[in-house]
């Protein structure tokens, strides 16, 4: 996790575009593709390279005829392409499911390529082992974005989708990174203009934090409190675990993480022009839609950024392919409430898009109580997958959380229903007890 976070800070997630005439020389180290059989779970295992992407496939000896595709998350900008085993591998094999996972043929934030390579792997599986009776697409983080794209682009080939901690709001995530930085600049009085330049993290950010409180993020002045409140609204609204997430992502994750996500120039690999914007955002420090004098002043003074049209494509399999809400198969998603890297807001953005398309009956969303990114207990993942299968195969629609109801989201018990309360959490580690939330109420 730490290596991934540091890599993302270095990238700025909105890094300078890689638009060189010669594409990067991505490669798969085929010596790393073989993987061993799990004890007491005999299987047929296959690995190789298909269309430039490494892959792994595993089919249990007693195959139930069903396939589960795994879409991995962001890998950084290195040239080596690597493959994950499915995080539910043991459960899937024990219950008769085959699984397959692709490295994708590119790194960087390229969910379109991830979607195309994952779908190509599904087709490869069909040719090797026969067409499965059911196919499920699952994925985490950027892989959750991939899952959303696959579900919308090829609904005839998949029966159910399970994105976890997913970037289901596509460009809205990058806008959120912009929000964090322009808001901090305005409220701190530093007023550094975006894009920030090479001295941002070394000079501007320390001065910014000092101006927001005597011990940012743990002790804040009035400006710092407004900044915190603004980021709460922009990341999903008032909800349990935001306080803990605020301390974790702004103080305990190394390297000024959220500030580091804004150090680029707003462009994305393989896509020309600035892709981030906030020109359409009305910033608030609370949930009351009526603007206070302080909110009015902030909205007047904050720097506004407008994306270049060619960098924010809204159709086709563009680099950062949007999720449109055109959902034709059941989707059951999972997201932690305290994640401020890929925040809970992503679920709300997607829920609105699905509702606008009239497809809300096909989407169920669940919240769990943790501060980490993709920090799910094994039982939470198993339960989510099992409930998705019951929905697809038996018509039993699972329960979910009302992610678009501010009153429900703000309830102190929100997220308790689908959280494994017996699992170890980040706050159980030495020195992190400050992050421990109030216990879920006894039902």
UniProtKB/TrEMBL annotation:
**Keyword field contains Signal:** yes
Looking up SUPFAM superfamilies in the UniProt record yields: alpha/beta-Hydrolases
On the tree of life, the source organism's domain of life is: Bacteria
Q: Which residues form the Peptidase S9 prolyl oligopeptidase catalytic domain?
A: 124-184
Coiled-coil annotation: which residues?
none
Q: Which InterPro entries match?
A: AB_hydrolase_fold, Peptidase_S9_cat
Instruction: State the Pfam families in the record.
Output: Peptidase_S9
Q: Which residues form the signal peptide?
A: 1-20
Q: Which key words are in the record?
A: Signal
| Name of the featured protein | Prolyl oligopeptidase family serine peptidase
To which species is this protein native?
A: Roseateles violae
